[in-house]
């Protein structure tokens, strides 16, 4: 086009930025941005909207914010673009602040806005916030179309409220394969294996072709229910009947299925015959199963798994602790000390654990040995009072005897 001397205009650039966003072509996109700047087309609102989309998709959230902040005119699409860009780049708090600014500026959110916000709620794991977003959907009278309904199901399921997820799912008049998959996976991840598999059968009767997420939920359900035979069948059916190529998550679900059933050798053989290289999560899953079903390592699988795990992630302190604890559990103190020594020699430390407690609208984070919380004295005092209360009850019980 340029070679023929045809000048691009404000309708040309949005398509180019969308193309660059789709393939992550950050260098080419910046060059096109420069060209738009030279031709004076960068100040057009729908060019700027796609610029925000482009930079957000390429992980350059600071560039996206700069384009957005310099916009002299904004539309709902502008706000949706920057909110989505923040969520994609794990700036969840920023996305919520932008939503508040959007409302303050007089813009009414639409279905796209709500889908983005529900995704942010999933990232935060904040069910209360997700319910508030749902209430806004109802209050604004927004149409719960397939995409918004699927986002609601996904939010409720991933935030732990499977009942509400099921209520939303049942009330939807239009469902896609993603809707069914979100509900099946939600049931499976919360131990409702029977419900997940029943829903999968109902989905098949409705002539909806499953996808890779559907089968991930089905395999997780088989794992929780101890249905090893069904798990094998579904794993092969996924490939042979539907042509779905397994990804790491599917292989991991099968290893978990074997491990929960105590089939450690079969799980290890399955890993060694995989066409892809196993990741550390898979090895840790099997090592945990070995600690439960074969604590003395009579099968020899635990030794092999521990070695593979340390070779794969030699700089992870948590892996060393996990392997050392397995040896210590069965009294193999020399091996446990050898692993601990290797950890010290590398200067590694186990990542500190953290607990989160939600009080009112605030989330408080606690670390081991951290007394920096403002209410720390009150927390220790409460623990003391609970202890005294329990002691008094025990004394009263003994006197009554």
TrEMBL record:
Keyword vocabulary terms for this entry: Repeat
Keyword presence, Ribonucleoprotein: no
Gene3D superfamilies according to UniProt: Tetratricopeptide repeat domain (1.25.40.10)
Domain of life: Eukaryota
Any GO BP: RNA modification
GO molecular function: RNA binding
One Pfam family this sequence matches: PPR_2
Per-repeat ranges for PPR: 75-109, 176-210
Keyword match Acyltransferase: no
PANTHER family xrefs: PENTATRICOPEPTIDE REPEAT-CONTAINING PROTEIN
Protein name: Pentatricopeptide repeat-containing protein
Protein's organism: Rhododendron griersonianum
Lineage: Eukaryota, Viridiplantae, Streptophyta, Embryophyta, Tracheophyta
């Amino acid at each position: 086009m340029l070679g023929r001397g045809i000048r691009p205009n404000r309708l040309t650039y949005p398509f180019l930025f969308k193309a660059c966003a789709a393939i992550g072509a950050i260098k080419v996109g910046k060059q096109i941005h420069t060209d738009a700047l030279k031709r004076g087309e960068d100040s057009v609102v729908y060019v700027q909207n796609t610029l925000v989309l482009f930079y957000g998709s390429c992980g350059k959230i600071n560039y996206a914010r700069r384009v957005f902040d310099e916009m002299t005119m904004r539309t709902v699409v502008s706000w949706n673009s920057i909110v989505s860009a923040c969520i994609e780049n794990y700036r969840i708090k920023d996305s919520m602040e932008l939503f508040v600014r959007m409302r303050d500026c007089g813009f009414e959110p639409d279905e796209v806005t709500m889908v983005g916000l529900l995704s942010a709620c999933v990232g935060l794991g904040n069910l209360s916030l997700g319910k508030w977003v749902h209430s806004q959907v109802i209050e604004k009278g927004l149409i719960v179309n397939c995409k918004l309904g699927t986002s609601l199901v996904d939010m409720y399921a991933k935030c732990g409220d499977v009942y509400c997820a099921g209520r939303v799912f049942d009330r939807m008049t239009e469902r896609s394969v993603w809707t069914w998959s979100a509900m099946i996976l939600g049931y499976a991840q919360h131990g409702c294996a029977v419900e997940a598999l029943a829903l999968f059968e109902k989905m098949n009767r409705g002539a909806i072709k499953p996808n890779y997420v559907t089968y991930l939920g089905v395999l997780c359900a088989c794992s929780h229910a101890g249905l090893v035979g069904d798990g094998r069948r579904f794993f092969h059916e996924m490939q042979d009947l539907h042509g779905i190529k397994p990804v790491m998550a599917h292989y991991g679900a099968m290893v978990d299925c074997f491990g929960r059933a105590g089939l450690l050798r079969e799980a290890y053989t399955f890993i060694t015959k995989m066409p892809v290289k196993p990741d550390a999560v898979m090895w840790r899953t099997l090592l945990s199963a070995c600690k439960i079903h074969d604590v003395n390592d009579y099968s020899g699988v635990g030794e092999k798994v521990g070695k593979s795990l340390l070779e794969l992630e030699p700089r992870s302190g948590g892996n060393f602790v996990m392997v050392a604890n397995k040896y210590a559990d069965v009294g193999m103190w020399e091996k446990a000390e050898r692993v601990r020594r290797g950890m010290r020699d590398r200067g590694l430390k186990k990542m500190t654990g953290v607990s989160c407690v939600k009080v009112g609208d605030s989330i408080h984070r606690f670390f081991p040995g951290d007394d920096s919380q403002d209410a720390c004295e009150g927390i220790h005092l409460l623990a003391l009072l609970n202890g005294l209360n329990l002691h008094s009850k025990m004394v009263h019980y003994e006197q009554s005897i």
